[in-house]
Amino acid sequence: MALFQNRKENLPGEKGSGVLVLGGVPSGSPVEGISISDTSIDWTPEEERRLVRRIDSIVMPLLMLAFFALQLDRGNIGNALTDFFFRDVGITQNQFNIGQQLLSVGIVLLEIPSNYILYRIGPSTWISGQIIAWGLVATFQAFQKGLGAYLSTRLLLGLCESGFIPAGLFTITRWYKKEETSKRFAWFFIGNMLAQAISGIVAYGVLHMRGIEGLFTILVGFIFATLFPKGPSDPICLARFRYFNERESRILTLRVLQDDPTKEYSAKNITGSEIKRTLSNWRLLPHVLFTILGLAPSSTMWSYAPSIVNTFGYERLRSNALVSVGQWIQLVLNVTWGIVADRIGQRGPLVFLGMLLWWVFALACRLLIYSKDEHKRFAILTLAISCSSIWHPVNGSWMALNTRSAGERSITLAIFIMSANCSGIIGSQLFQQADAPLYRTGWTVIISLISVALLCTIWANVQYRLFNRRLDAEGKDKVRYRY
Fold first, then answer.
1. Scanning 36, 144, 292, 445, which has its CA 20 to 30 A from the CA of 53?
2. Which GO cellular component term is one of those annotated (predicted)?
């Protein structure tokens, strides 16, 4: 296999790298039947851009719709707290926190096994099955009563949801080139943020919506199963509709291969060496740490923001709608961060900037807990919510770009989402019943967590620069890392 001229900005296995590390890719991947040895480019840039726009109109909306359904089922419980949820179910606030922890534990437990299955059977089959499964759980949780039913339902919901987010992110990497992923990762997370924003508004107008979102999710699962294409080289859905003709499919496949030759070989299993290499990659450590520590307070906001706004003097159901203001702002900032990251070709600085904004506004929330100006407190809380996780999708893209094979990328993205859900285990306990309603201790812990997370973002940025500088000084013909 021919080696390309090395460049400083190259990644492991990227076109132009001095070392190519080949790894397995899942069934239905964009490499079947087409080889990287076919280097001919018989299409125009405009033709490629037109095909990418079609991918954006087919693949991304279905993935975003599925994420929307996921967050609607997972996060609507925060709005239910203003609807006498504790009284209706028969649990206390601390017991509620434990249930939220079990949700995250369930997701973490099956994250990597779920991605292993995805690798074998492909996204269209596995993701649609997951959607229907958690939709059924979300539907029947409307009938829960008592602590046992509540805890078991939250755990089961987490088990069914595990693996969906990294599966979606991994699927995006199969359709898009590396410099296109940050923006698409951000689009994917729009489904999550849109559900957060809309659920508050819906809860304001609809007092009892438990179970309705579960039925909606089941419908989404069947839509996804019917319409989602298998892959760029086999762009056919279950409904037997072919989205791209033979020439278009060849272009979509080759453009990805020429961008990342590691996707050339197909295999239905992730190799043991890929798993070992990923789990022993110490450079992932700062990413894992700042994901856990930075998102833990964000998960607290998902559950308690409506209740906090309620303490500002706003009517309890109106509080749900008001919280969505920050979530709508976050949606815009999320897309902006992804677009800018792809445009400037750097992810690390934007992750740091997003975390810095989150720290500044969270600190302001802590300093204002005794303020009598409730409108000011609401404004600062809204800004904090709007910046709480805008760095998260860009971090996922950053981690994916620094992998050496498709299998390693799959496990890395699973670790990425496992870290995010570990944050939920911590975040579920930050606001305790005895600390209500100001949550002075809780806000102090939040500031501490985000402060450490901010330091870890600096660590992540510096480590790649130092590593590349050392390679330059030694004159080694090895791949460089992205930051």
1. 36
2. membrane
Q: Comparing C-alpha atoms, which of 112, 66, 371 is closest to residue 227? A: 66
Name 77's Cβ contacts closer than 8 Å, sequence gap at least 6.
85, 100, 303
CA–CA distance from 341 to each of 203, 263, 443 (Å)? 34, 23, 31
Distance CA 130, CA 164 (A): 7
Is 90 part of any domain? yes
Q: Residue 211: which domain range? A: 45-270+282-474
17 assigned to some structural domain: no
In a domain, 394, yes or no: yes
Dump pLDDT digits (tens) for 225-260: 999 998 888 888 888 889 999 999 989 988 988 887
CATH number of the domain at 298, please: 1.20.1250.20
Within a domain: residue 14?
no
User: Tokens 């949700």 — which residue?
Assistant: 103
Tell me the per-residue pLDDT of 75-104, one tens digit each, with 9 for 90 and over. 666 666 655 677 777 888 888 888 888 888
pLDDT digits (tens, 9 = 90+) for 103-155: 888 888 888 888 778 877 878 888 999 999 988 988 887 777 888 888 988 89
